[in-house]
Amino acid sequence: MRQRDINTGMLDFAKLRVAYGMTGNDYIPYYIYNRYVSGVSNNPRYPNIDHLTFPLGGVNSYTLSNRLGNENLKPELTREFEVGAELRMLDNRVGVDFSFYNKFTKDLIEVLPRDPSSGFSEMVSNLGDVRNKGFELSLNLTPLIIRDFSWDIGWNYTINKNKIERGRSFSVRFWRSRHLCRRRKAYRTI
Questions:
Q1: How far apart are CA 134 and CA 185, in angstroms?
Q2: Suppose 120 and one of 30, 35, 68, 102 were both cysteines; which one would form an S-S bond, judging by CB atoms 3.0 to 4.6 Å apart?
Q3: 28: buried, middle or exposed (CB in 10 Å: 19+, 13-18, 0-12)?
């Protein structure tokens, strides 16, 4: 504004920001259904061989993946809103930057553990909805400028709060042998 001969007083620069965005995240389509993967033999007990991967010598081998498919998997959707201001004053010796953000993720996709006795050790699933909000405040000072030397001081303060808005309920049960069950009368569900 000073370039147009408008008197801004001690203010050298001012900018207001407002932003809104929406992004999606889909999982790899091959993990939605049960799938077969190349066979692997770890430590086959042959001398000087630690690991075999198929196809080997023209022979293919496939095995069912340990990740259970999930046909009910929904895409993850994130919406974010941010508002902020940036100010510089006193010949750019003092600067203030402030931002407030609010981010909401619906149907968060995550790999969850499964009981290995089911034949699978993990499953991709929608965990729930998560909100992440907070603000950032930044203060920049230049108290000393002498010819080719300047002393710059920067300070930053941030508050971030995460909250699970809606969570998927699931439990993992640890089974014990009969001997341990006699000593402990109950087992814990997490």
A1: 46
A2: 68
A3: exposed
* pLDDT tens sequence across 85-123: 999 999 889 999 999 999 999 998 888 888 888 888 888
User: What is the rounded average pLDDT of the residues 12-37?
Assistant: 86
Radius of gyration of the chain (CA): 29
Q: Measured between alpha carbons, how far apart are the two ends of the chain, in Å?
A: 61
Q: Which amino acid is at 64?
A: L
| pTM of the predicted protein model | 0.66
Express each pLDDT in 121-159 by its tens digit. Answer: 888 888 889 999 999 999 999 999 898 899 999 999 999
Report residue 115: phi and psi, to 5°. Answer: -70, 120
Let me know the angle formed at the C-alpha of 96 by 92 and 101, rounded to the nearest 5 degrees: 145
With left for phi above 0 and alpha for psi between -120 and 50, is residue 32 left, alpha or beta? alpha
